[in-house]
Structure formats: structure tokens, C-alpha cells
Design a protein that fits this description.
The chain has 281 residues and is an alpha+beta fold. Helices cover 46% and strands 23% of the residues. Helix 2 packs parallel to helix 3.
Length: 281
């Protein structure tokens, strides 16, 4: 019964259409063409709108990809910096080449746009977290490096030999036993005397027994002294870095020959400089 009713309706519709087409002539044909053109124009507008929306969507994805690429470059720069600060092998931790990956392929399929956007969201969050974590790690390593540069380590001269040790020894002038609060490095007059750590000069001038003396405050309770100098090259208040030339070796004060008398003080008390001299090795 339903099929018969449908056929009757279709027949009536077709009859009316044919009668209208015959009776309307060119006027009805023109109206029909105009309606089709209007529908085609509407479809073109819908298609153009869809195309613009797709382009906007692609541009938004491209913008996000560009931002993520910038984050990756930042991560690579941070990673390279950390590699250098930590003394790692560049070949083992290379940020200039893609990481090695592999494995058999078990299933492949085209990724859908929503799935792709979800993956981008997750990757972006991980990148943000890693940037923050690497930034904190870089700050910690930098602070560790600064702390290590402020810790006395190494010899105050590149050339010379240790001529006297820390502790009890016969006084070179009286011959009596006395306390020697530092170690001496003998060498040629005018030899460069080097700061053994970063710090600030708190004394540069003559002092009884020391002759011309340079004293450097390194922070954290550490101070170093360099005595018997022929010439001081730094003034009070000057900032010095490890390895800077701060004086020339001489024999001013109580000295029998050119040498640098080197002292290390921790919280105002003398300590044996030998362990700090050996610390660099």
C-alpha cells in the first residue's frame, strides 16, 4: 500500500511538471535556469567558505608548529649549553642531529585531524615542561660553576717550584723554629702571580713582613694572600677572575729571594694551602 501511494504521488508530481513545462514556455524555463544558477552560486559560496575555514585551520596549525619548532631550537640551545657546562661528550649528547629511532612496523594508518591536534597539544605541554626543567637545571649548573670558580684551587704561578711548606720550619732569618702560615713558590723576579679563584681585592699594598701584598676575598669565608711581590697590578675593590695576573714575583718584605708567599684563610683562620693547590688536579 505504501509503494502504491508513493507511485501515485510521483505520477501526480510528474504530470504537473510536464503540464507546467508545456504551458509556461520560455518563461518557466528561464525561471528554472535562474533557480539552478542561484543554487549553484550558493554552493560556490559554501565551498569558498569551507575552503577559507580549512585554510585558516591549516594556518593555525602551521603557526603552532612554528612555535613548537622555536621551542625545540630553544631546547637544543639549552641542551648544548648544559652539555658544555657539565663537561659531557658532545658525541654522546648531540643536540644537532635527530635522535636515533627504530623498530618494525606493525600497523599504519592515516592520522585524523582531531587526533593530530590532540598529539600537538600533548607535545606542546611536554615541551613547555622540559624548557622549564632545563632552565632550572641550567641555573643550578651555572651556580655550581660560579661556586667552583670562587673556591681556591691551583697554583698561584705557572712557573716556579715549591720552596717552603705550611707549618713549623726554621725561620730563614733567625734560624729559630717558627710557624709558617703559607707555602712559598720560588721563581724568577717578575714572574706572573695568578689569582687562584674569582673574587674581590680587599688589600693591595705594603704590610709588615709580607712586603707588597695582594689579598682577595672569594666569598663563602675564603680569602687568599699573595706576598713579597715586586709589583702589584690590581687595586683595592677590583674584581678578579681565576687565572688573572694580579702581581709580579719579587722579594719585598721578609724574603731571601724572589718568591710568592701564598696563604689561604677560611673564616679568618689559616688553613694548609697545599690541598687547594692539589685540588685542581
Amino acid at each position: 500500500m505504501g509503494a502504491g501511494l508513493f507511485g501515485l504521488v510521483a505520477a501526480v508530481f510528474l504530470t504537473g511538471y510536464l503540464l507546467g513545462a508545456r504551458g509556461g514556455g520560455e518563461e518557466n524555463n528561464s525561471a528554472l535556469v535562474a533557480r539552478w544558477n542561484a543554487e549553484l552560486q550558493q554552493q560556490r559560496e559554501v565551498l569558498q567558505q569551507s575552503r577559507e575555514e580549512s585554510e585558516n585551520h591549516i594556518n593555525a596549525l602551521a603557526l603552532r608548529l612554528g612555535e613548537m619548532q622555536a621551542q625545540v631550537l630553544r631546547l637544543n640551545a639549552l641542551g648544548s649549553r648544559l652539555t658544555g657546562m657539565a663537561g659531557m661528550d658532545d658525541g654522546e649528547f648531540s643536540f644537532d642531529t635527530p635522535p636515533a629511532v627504530g623498530g618494525p612496523v606493525t600497523d599504519t594508518r592515516a592520522i585524523e585531524v582531531p587526533e593530530f591536534e590532540l598529539a600537538l597539544d600533548g607535545l606542546e605541554q611536554r615541551l613547555d615542561t622540559q624548557v622549564r626543567q632545563l632552565g632550572v637545571l641550567a641555573d643550578l649548573l651555572l651556580q655550581r660553576e660560579l661556586d667552583s670558580r670562587q673556591l681556591p684551587a691551583g697554583r698561584p704561578v705557572d712557573n716556579g717550584w715549591m720552596s717552603s711548606v705550611y707549618g713549623q720550619r726554621p725561620d730563614p732569618f733567625s734560624g729559630k723554629m717558627g710557624w709558617h702560615a703559607g707555602i712559598d713558590f720560588a721563581g724568577q723576579s717578575g714572574t706572573d702571580i695568578l689569582a687562584v679563584a674569582d673574587g674581590v681585592v680587599i688589600w693591595s699594598g705594603a704590610r709588615y713582613g709580607y712586603g707588597r701584598l695582594v689579598e682577595v676575598d672569594h666569598g663563602n669565608g675564603y680569602r687568599t694572600r699573595y706576598a713579597h711581590n715586586k709589583e702589584n697590578l690590581v687595586a683595592i675593590g677590583a674584581r678578579v677572575r681565576k687565572g688573572d695576573v694580579i702581581a709580579r714575583m719579587g722579594s719585598s718584605g721578609r724574603a731571601t729571594a724572589p718568591n710568592v708567599h701564598f696563604e689561604v684563610l677560611l673564616n679568618g683562620k689559616h688553613v694548609n694551602p697545599a690541598k687547594y693547590v692539589r685540588a685542581l688536579n
